[in-house]
Here is the input.
Amino acid sequence: MPMARRLRARWRVGGKWRRWTEYTWKKGGCMNIMLSSKTVELTEQVKQFFREKLARLQKFPSLGVRNVEVVVDRVKRKGRNTSDATVEVITEVKGRRFAFKEIGANLYQAFFRVYSKVEEKFRREDGERKRR
Here is the structure.
């Protein structure tokens, strides 16, 4: 029973063993969003979670680009194991749309990899404008 095995998966966090839940958990100061085994449409609650995380990041200029809104539209997962899960994240930044594919153990991890790519792209564009 692969489902039962997945629900029994436990991870060591903050010196204690914790169980993953189906979608979210928060222990030891970190939060993860787990993907389901099929293509999922993100609920408004999950989108709001990402908006809040991004808003917190934007308070610290060294951690992110200011005035960037990232909208997560669609997530796909391929493969049985989380290690080979492919996550496709479509984002909208300053009115322009980008599509990135990332391999990550969970949606949260893939999202921040995408965010760092977007941040790098805008830093590069800002640098080119300053040189001109």
About this structure: The chain has one domain: 36-131.
